[in-house]
Amino acid sequence: MTASPSIDPGTSMGRVKLTVADGDRARSFYERAIGLRTLDSNGGGNGEGVLLGAEGGPAAVELATRPAAPPRPPGTTGLFHLAILVPARLDLARALRRVVEAGWRLTGASDHLVSEALYLNDPEGNGIEIYRDRPREEWRYDGGQLQMATLPLDVDSLLAELEGSDSSDAGMPAGTRIGHTHLNVADIAASEDFYVRGLGFDPTVRGYPGALFVSAGGYHHHLGLNTWAGAGAPPPPPGTRGLDLFEVVLPDADALARTEKRIGSRDVVAERREEGLVAIDPSGNRVLLSAPVAS
């Protein structure tokens, strides 16, 4: 078996696992303000491994409660934001209404050309993006480079989607999932070596200062990597709140095996677990490489 030049194009993103101090408050926030549902819980709101997602869908967020966990220090690597992808523009409008009705404040609202996005923080300061993609045929390229930007979102146009729609709130719709994960890293070159030459993601956008975006299968990005917490930023101390790990889902066991062989050839250390392989990037961020279990 030979390593392919790129990670399997069917690769997608799985859940983001967060360490939180107040599991009940965090769980309530993700249910009320975000519209996720508890899919599985071990020990209630303050138990290990509370999984939240859209009804009938994959888990998007996992909460692991550690009441004594200290906050993540400023200027460290870790999660910049987790990004929840909704199927349609109407779903994004409903998400905006839900956030406002829950009494939560946005930190931003942007048009990225390839997508439209809302930004906010959870009760423990973890960044969240909720977004919808524009159809791929509307994405623009210049010299082979995908064009992305950060422009003001037309909120009035977005809210107009709600006119004549059902005002009830059934939570996030089927098909909602993690679309991408955005990380604070210490060094772009080292991160590119790990995620591109190591795992096999393809670079898509280099135009943002201090940032790199990479993907599988031509998507705009499955991973954002930035040094906005400071070049050379250290990882947070073990056991702090925030990112525990994020999941990259290969389409099948063969694709996972090819990726395992690839990273092994680059001396990337990966711990084998029942759920997959856990590797640590040069900035101390943990990534779980998994594949669906064959039925």
Task: Please explain how this structure is put together.
By secondary structure, the protein is of the alpha+beta class. It is built from 5 helices and 19 strands. The strands form 3 sheets. It has a 9-stranded mixed beta sheet, covered by helices on one side. The chain has an 8-stranded mixed beta sheet with strand order 2-3-4-1-16-19-18-17, with helices on one face. It is globular, with a radius of gyration of 18 Å. It starts with 11 loop residues before the first strand and ends in a 5-residue tail after the last strand.
Helix content, binned percent: 10-25%
Judging from the principal axes of the Cα atoms, what is the shape?
globular
The average pLDDT score comes to 94
Count of strand segments: 19
Unreliably modeled segments: 43-47
How would you summarize the topology of this molecule?
Blueprint: E1 12-20, H1 23-32, E2 37-40, E3 50-53, E4 59-65, E5 78-85, H2 89-101, E6 108-111, E7 115-121, E8 127-133, E9 141-142, E10 145-146, E11 151-152, H3 155-160, E12 177-184, H4 188-198, E13 202-205, E14 211-215, E15 223-226, E16 242-249, H5 253-265, E17 270-273, E18 276-280, E19 286-290
Parallel strand pairs: 1-4, 5-8, 12-15, 16-19
Antiparallel strand pairs: 1-16, 2-3, 3-4, 5-12, 6-7, 6-11, 7-8, 9-10, 13-14, 14-15, 17-18, 18-19
Short key terms for the protein model shown above:
9-stranded mixed β-sheet, 295 residues, alpha+beta, 19 strands
